[in-house]
Amino acid sequence: MASLPVTGELNQETLHKMEQPRCGVADISENSPLNFVTGPRKWPKTLLTWRISTYSKTSKLTEFQQRDAIERGLNIWAKHTPLRFQYQTLGRADLNFKFGVRYHGDSDKFDGDGGVLAHATLPTDGEIHFDDEEMWLLGQEAQSKGAELYIVAAHEIGHALGLDHTKVQGALMAPMYVYSSNLQLHSDDISGIQFLYGKRFSRRKSFWWFLRK
Ligand SMILES: [Zn+2]
Ligand SMILES: [Zn+2]
Hints:
Elements: H1 12-19, E1 47-54, H2 63-78, E2 84-87, E3 95-100, E4 118-120, E5 127-131, E6 136-137, E7 147-148, H3 149-160, H4 187-197, H5 203-212
The structure holds zinc ion (2 copies).
């Protein structure tokens, strides 16, 4: 998964990779292709509702900052697909975001500071959970410590939309968390999400269609 040269030895490079913070969703089998991998299902619709049922209690980020980071994480995928996301404050939404520690209501308990940062379920379950024992930060502040909420949210949203881990280094859907000051989807991420949902309809196309009618 980390594209390390196969040496058969537990060397320093391997140990270093094993210690890096990562996503809690398990990596798939060794026989997977060397590019994007999709889960067994996708959402049968393109307008998805979302809510944050539990905000971070330990972070210094305000609720507005947390919501904004998650919204940017959704938009990075919406930019390349027909997917649209609608925020709601109450009730059951398609995508449910929450922060929790250790046992937090599912079978996959969090491990405290470091290690697993977050996890998510594949469609159409829509659960995206963040480990609230991590130091959640935004932007440059996350360069040397903690975890950048927008980047981690964007990765987990990829799972919640139906993408599994990729072996392509530099892709958002690689399992290891890497800080970036300017997060962009890799062409592998874009190929994956467009394989599931297609490309974004261009405005111009629908305009001309309207004129011809
Ligand atoms: Zn992941
Ligand atoms: Zn969970």
